[in-house]
Structure formats: structure tokens, C-alpha cells
Design goal:
single chain, 65 residues, alpha+beta, three-stranded antiparallel sheet, 3 helices, 15% strand
């Protein structure tokens, strides 16, 4: 049986934690930052956890972790 291929587009955006959850960077930080308030920008700095509903699909896309 051949090796399974990793989806590189997902591998560059997602990091897997030791417990098996997936960390993502929060969206909305690229441009137009002057119109966003400080609290909103501060919360976007922290990494977010991907919901469990999406994690099932990611396991197929990232077969080797």
C-alpha cells in the first residue's frame, strides 16, 4: 500500500498539540488593523483551538501528525 499524502495547505496553517488538539492562528490580523479596537486585537494575538467538529476532518488530511 502506498504512503498517504499530507495536505500541505493545512499542515502550514495548523499545529497539533501533545494532547491531539489542533491550534490555529485567529483570522483577521493581516490588514485594516487601525479600525479594530485594542481588546479585539489583543484576543487575536493568542492562538485558538480548532473546534472538535473540524478536527475529525483534519485527521484524514494530516495522516502523520
Amino acid at each position: 500500500m502506498p504512503k498517504m499524502k499530507t495536505r500541505k495547505c493545512i499542515a502550514k496553517r495548523v499545529k497539533r498539540t501533545a494532547t491531539g488538539k489542533y491550534m490555529i492562528s485567529k483570522p483577521g490580523r493581516r490588514h485594516l488593523m487601525s479600525s479594530k479596537n485594542s481588546k479585539r486585537k489583543r484576543h487575536m494575538r493568542q492562538d485558538g483551538l480548532l473546534p472538535a467538529a473540524h478536527a475529525q476532518r483534519l485527521k484524514k488530511a494530516l495522516p502523520y501528525g
